[in-house]
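Is heme C placement plausible here? Inputs below.
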Amino acid sequence: MKIAIAGALCASLFAASMTAQAEVSPEDQIQLRKAGYSFMSWNMGKIKEQVIDESVTYNPDQMLAAANAISAISKSGMGALFGPGTEQNVGDQVTRVKPEMFDNTPDVIKLSGDLTKAADNLVSAAVEGDQSKVRSAFGQVGDTCKACHDKYRQK
Ligand code: HEC
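Reply from A.M.:
I modeled the complex. Tokens:
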């Protein structure tokens, strides 16, 4: 990915306090945050298939991999991708964020923290490997996704 590589190059060339984030344009911030959410969603889908639908054979290793991915993304500092100018469509990037999200930072931090906690709990359940515990932890993660979408994502 172009942005990540540019960030890595800057870091090594200037070896100072420059962060990759400072170089991410509003358009790329929107693209990256949507990619982060989509990637979590893909992993949620894998868990759903095995513990809710049971259309795929339960595989504890795959559940742990998916839980770890969701947890890592939830802790990756996605708040940095909601910078100025990203409350509306930019260039090719269409956003569904509600502008209110930018005026309610404490609430957004709380909702993000709820996701992180639920995702940690999902990882613990996946480490244990018990399918019914993974199922219940999965439901709790889903509730935290929905809580934020209900408030801050347009239909
Ligand atoms: C703190 C708020 C918040 C939490 C928590 C959250 N989301 Fe979202 N989500 C958003 C916002 C805001 C958007 C709209 C982003 C945009 O269009 O710029 C979004 C968009 C999405 C999208 C659409 C991405 C696209 O390509 O348009 C998916 C899928 C998604 N979220 C899944 C999830 C899943 C799965 C979880 C939980 C594991 C989750 N989200 C947790 C706020 C949140």
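Short version: Residues 25-152 form a domain with the Four Helix Bundle (Hemerythrin (Met), subunit A) fold (CATH 1.20.120.10).
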